[in-house]
Specification:
The protein has 323 residues and is mainly alpha-helical. 75% of the residues lie in helices and 1% in strands. The protein has one domain: ABC transporter involved in vitamin B12 uptake, BtuC (Orthogonal Bundle), CATH 1.10.3470. It has 13 helices and 2 strands. The two termini are 38 Å apart.
Length: 323
């Protein structure tokens, strides 16, 4: 009897530790990464660098919180980066030099983004096109539209207020980071406190069971794609203000980085599982990695190799969701 009793506390302790790592693994990994970055490069902890990291992270975070919704219903969106660039081109089409045009630019960008998201969702939900092919086709279409309009030449006619929104600070906090925080809170409430959120988890977990319970999986899927595209469009405007000049490749790479960050943050590709906070932790890991390899002066080849290794390590370390 005594040996059995002696093993019970160890077993409970083992289970408890496993639960902690499953639940908070990515947060722990991020903490270790921050310590390593500070030790490897003293420049990392300088306020100017930290503010720069947060400013750069915000547009990607906006895309990731939208991408998380699509992944939760067993999809993905490869058109987000192309949409960001298209929205940036749309913003310059107004040829506005007054800040009075900024609300109009945002409204036009949101309308275009919602339309793109609706088409993506309709193709996936109503026509049974695979998310990969549907969003890849949309990416190519948007790219063609941009090149037809710009002729491949960069454009830089923007209201001055766009730069403040993208890289300005209020009380030392980047404005775009504040915007991301508002978006994250609102979408977290939608996901965890609304009927739509409950339907998203049900559709992602089992579409047939959701249908039998009176939920329309097609409607939920389309809504998720619309949310994803609107988030990407807003992120495109903030990235545009940060860059200052529109090229046809604004946001390049965000389509893959957004998927990686969301999945690394516990949003399951199999659907029905994930949180906004977890997805944003994935963003933090990616941004810290990018910043660190730049500070260390590694060539681009080594940057890609190191980034890939750390992403795989983080994904393996953090096996399940963060609630």
């Amino acid at each position: 009897m005594a040996p059995l009793e002696a093993t019970l506390p160890k077993s409970r302790k083992s289970v408890s530790m496993a639960a902690i790592f499953e639940r908070f693994g990515l947060a722990i990994f991020l903490g270790v990464l921050l310590v390593a970055a500070a030790l490897l490069s003293p420049t990392f902890l300088r306020p100017a660098n930290l503010v720069n990291v947060l400013t750069i992270a915000a547009p990607l975070g906006m895309v990731v919180v939208g991408q998380a919704f699509v992944i939760m219903v067993r999809g993905l969106d490869l058109s987000v980066a192309s949409l960001m660039a298209t929205v940036a081109v749309l913003a310059t089409a107004f040829k506005a030099t007054s800040n009075d045009a900024i609300p109009v630019i945002f409204i036009a960008a949101i309308v275009l983004s919602a339309l793109v998201g609706f088409v993506n969702g309709w193709l996936v939900a109503k026509r049974n096109v695979s998310p990969f092919l549907a969003t890849l086709a949309m990416m190519i279409i948007l790219q063609g539209v941009r090149f037809a309009y710009t002729g491949g030449a960069p454009i830089s006619t923007l209201p001055p207020g766009m730069s403040f929104l993208a890289s300005g600070r209020i009380w030392g906090i980047p404005v775009n980071l504040m915007t991301l925080a508002v978006m994250a809170v609102v979408l977290s409430i939608v996901l965890h406190r609304s009927r739509l959120g409950r339907e998203i988890f049900m559709v992602g977990s089992n579409p047939k069971a959701a249908f039998l319970n009176g939920i329309a999986p097609d409607r939920v899927t389309i809504a998720c794609y619309v949310i994803c595209s609107v988030c990407a469009g807003i992120g495109g405007l903030f990235l545009l203000g940060y860059v200052g000049t529109v090229s046809n490749w604004v946001g390049q790479g965000y389509e893959l980085d957004s998927i990686v960050a969301a999945v690394m943050g516990g949003v399951a590709l199999s659907g029905g599982r994930g949180t906004i906070l977890g997805a944003l932790l994935g963003v933090a890991v990616l941004v810290v990695i990018n910043n660190l390899v730049l500070l260390l002066g590694f060539p681009i080849e080594m940057q890609l190799i190191i980034k890939g290794i750390i992403i795989v390590g983080a994904a393996a370390f953090y096996r399940t969701r963060l609630v």
